[in-house]
Amino acid sequence: MICNEKMYALGAKRSVIRELFEYGKKRKAEVGEDKVYDFSLGNPSVPPPKEVKEALLRLLDTPNETALHGYTSAQGDKGVRETIAKNYKEKYGFAFDPDLMYMTCGAAASLAISLNAVIKDEKDEVLTFAPFFPEYRVFTEKAGAKLVAVSPAEGLDIDVEAFAAAINAHTRAVILNSPNNPSGVVYSEEKIKAVAEVLKAASAKYGAPIYLISDEPYRELIFDGKKAPSLPLYYKDVIVCYSYSKALSLPGERIGYIAVSPQATDAEALYLAVCGAGRALGYVCAPSLFQLLVKECDAYTGDINAYKENRDLLYGALTEYGFTCAYPSGAFYLFVQSPTGDASALSEAAKEEDVLVVPSDSFGCAGYVRIAYCVSRDLIERSLPAFRRIAEKFGLRK
Amino acid sequence: MICNEKMYALGAKRSVIRELFEYGKKRKAEVGEDKVYDFSLGNPSVPPPKEVKEALLRLLDTPNETALHGYTSAQGDKGVRETIAKNYKEKYGFAFDPDLMYMTCGAAASLAISLNAVIKDEKDEVLTFAPFFPEYRVFTEKAGAKLVAVSPAEGLDIDVEAFAAAINAHTRAVILNSPNNPSGVVYSEEKIKAVAEVLKAASAKYGAPIYLISDEPYRELIFDGKKAPSLPLYYKDVIVCYSYSKALSLPGERIGYIAVSPQATDAEALYLAVCGAGRALGYVCAPSLFQLLVKECDAYTGDINAYKENRDLLYGALTEYGFTCAYPSGAFYLFVQSPTGDASALSEAAKEEDVLVVPSDSFGCAGYVRIAYCVSRDLIERSLPAFRRIAEKFGLRK
Question: What CA–CA distance (Å, rounded) separates B196 from B214?
Fold first, then answer.
């Protein structure tokens, strides 16, 4: 091989999601755009809140374009970080220190940078809770450690006992993602507390902090009056990784942040490691125009209610047809059990009906498919007869 | 240490350039904004061409904001890549393949990704020509290899013999930067041909391609009727790393690209390794709005003539005062010899006159200071008496 084999393998092996997306494009060309029900991609379907365009136009109307598009400090514009910290305090009741916040090119960058900052040794392990976003493995391995998945309890919830049993002297960090991609499950405050207790005991036992990396791009996409608990309220060694991709419907613009809890062990050293990892991975600063946009729009979200209505419609129909699915109170995903226990049996049966859903194997949880319902309501309505036929095929409907 | 020590060290050790910039801010507060002559930062001083704002307003005026700000493919929007390839062919006479191009978050990302794609082994070495941009060492070491600098010939030009002598069986890649940061020197076509010949012979001798990574963010900032030669015309195993930071005065927006030469050995595998490295480092896609902006503005530049006039004024004055400096035909830097041979002697003497220039040690070339003349003409004019006094201090003026 003329180049780095691991990087080649990552580039050559398209993700299942992208494979399906490409198939969908081809299939739409064959049978017509409106005949294919593509639930493969987690691309927000609601437009950004109107404040986004208003703020962008206001920002562009500056006499000083050189400053508008110029480098910010590597950590990001200080005023932006101050605004985010202030809003977060009001909404979640925890005070971040703007000087321990680092603006990033989105959630993937936040995670890759955080993992490179904390992983020290090739024996290091990073735990996460299945089902989980497949790129966690990619980022963890590139940072030089091993990803270990903890199988879920009933309802795709956190299995605290299994979690405690999975921790050992090599556990450096835990990635927790709530609302969860791919299940849409929101972990309860009780579970968060239990996770925190396990981590406190394990950090004490092994004599070193185990970092809780909170991947929360779906934090604002939450229904049923629930609220995502702010993890630094429950545990001190927390690194929050956020992205505006979903809440502001700006996934292509790559804007997010890392916030090191001011209560973390030796927080300043940890923050400097974050800055160093950002530098070493080639991140000079987060995009400047969108940093300033975030300052204006941090408190807004797109029309979350549209997702809730999609959830209600699709969850209601699928469970009526006989499918089993953990109750999703957030994000924009349903994670549906395959009636045979085999993920591809269900995804292939769906494909025959031109319904595109992602088999679950890469999410570390066999026997499910992920349905991304960030699509138009009309598409969901038109897809329902196909879902009914799929249920009938498996003998689910009475 | 509770975190990764190398990342901590990179975060904790501010670059000399940033130290100086912070000092300048403090000093300006003390003695007044107009009394400090800050030549420390390579931040473009001319505004973006007017077409940038026009195009941004046009792009924002879309009914489909979801698509405007949505994910592009990981490689970047295909239409954007096609436009860049077409313009490059017209201007530089070499045809890139849009399917071997990868949009990035700027030059640092382009370099970090390319190095991670080609470096295979911890014994690998990456060569570069001194003086060089200090982050080359950071990116190379993070990618797992060692950076080796080749000392320059007279006039800060490439020393071809020293270059040939520095290559060995572990040489995986060579980074070439023309116009050069920090010297402003533009390497001649003859030197490029000589470098290519050395690389051809060495690739044949060691039985593996040695990649020529062309870091060319200053490609369009070139004066005196010169033109930067397109490296893929002279050597096949070329990876072009570009950024719009300087040409379009958009350094904070983080937009650039990698182009793998279609003539490179096993070009598709190399390209897939680039895609894999981008993925593993957390780059999902380059910022979408600025990808589309590039499609509209790839052929434009800011007012390069303003830089040329600054160059003429400052180069003329400094050489008249007795300073020695390689002739800079590009970028916006002068690299001035310290009369004592000691970089900090000159930078400290300048500091006493409130002239901020960067000592050269981190650029791998002792005994110089870098003057970034991407500042207003007025600032340069006002700084000249101070430069004259510095020359007198060293006994340079007759």
Answer: 12
* Contact residues on chain A for B279, CB-CB shorter than 8 A: 10-11, 135, 138
Residue to substitute from A2, A64, A73, interface B, most B β-carbons within 10 A: A2
Q: Where in chain B is the domain with CATH 3.40.640.10?
A: 70-297
Per-residue pLDDT, B398: 58
pLDDT band at A62 (very low <50, low <70, confident <90, very high): very high
Does residue B41 register a pLDDT over 90? no
Which residues are within 8 A (CB) of A194 and not within 5 positions of it... i.e. 6 or more apart? A158, A160
In this prediction the pTM is 0.97
A80 close to B (CB below 8 A): no
Q: Which residues of A touch B117 (CB under 8 A)?
A: 3-4, 7
Q: What is the ipTM of this complex?
A: 0.96
Chain A nearest-CA residue for B108: A282
Q: Does an H or E element contain B126, and which?
A: strand B125-129
Q: Does A8 touch chain B (CB under 8 A)?
A: yes
Instruction: Tell which CATH classification among 1.10.357.20, 2.60.40.10, 3.90.660.10, 3.90.1150.10 matches the domain A5-49+302-393.
Output: 3.90.1150.10
Q: How many residues does chain A have?
A: 398
114-133 in A: which are within 8 Å (CB) of B? 116-120
Closest-CA residue of chain B to A66: B47
Q: Give the pLDDT confidence of A72-112 residue by residue, as tens digits.
A: 999 999 999 999 999 999 999 999 999 999 999 999 999 99
Torsional class of A331: left (φ above 0), alpha (ψ -120 to 50), beta (otherwise) = left
The predicted pLDDT at position A368 comes to 97
Structurally, at CATH architecture level, domain A70-297 sits in 3-Layer(aba) Sandwich (3.40)
pLDDT at A316: 97
Report how far residue A5's alpha carbon sits from residue B355's, in angstroms, rounded to the nearest whole number: 49
Return all residues near A397 (Cβ < 8 A) that are at least 6 apart.
A321, A322, A388, A391
Render pLDDT for A14-56 as a digit per residue (tens, 0 to 9).
Answer: 778 878 888 988 999 999 989 999 999 888 999 999 999 999 9
Please name which of B301, B281, B370, B274 lies closest in space to residue A110, comparing C-alpha atoms: B281
- Give me the residue from B7, B254, B291 closest to A117, CB to CB: B7
Is some CB atom of chain B closer than 8 A to the CB atom of A5?
yes
Whether pLDDT at A398 is above 70: no
pLDDT score recorded for residue A21? 81
Number of H helices and E strands in chain A, helices first, is 14, 12
Q: What is the DSSP string of A270-328?
A: HHHHHHHHHHHTT---S-HHHHHHHHHHTT----HHHHHHHHHHHHHHHHHTT--B---
How far apart CA B57 and CA B70 sit, in angstroms, is 17
For testing contact with chain B, the best of A281, A288, A293, A297 (most B CBs within 10 A): A281
Residue A13 has pLDDT above 90, yes or no: no
Q: Which residue ranges does chain B devote to CATH 3.90.1150.10?
A: 5-49+302-393
Instruction: State how far residue B46 is from chain A, nearest Cα, in angstroms.
Output: 7
Give the mean model confidence (pLDDT) for residues B204-230: 95
d(CA B282, CA A139): 7
- Name residue B315's amino acid: Y
pLDDT tens column, B76-106: 999 999 999 999 999 999 999 999 999 999 9
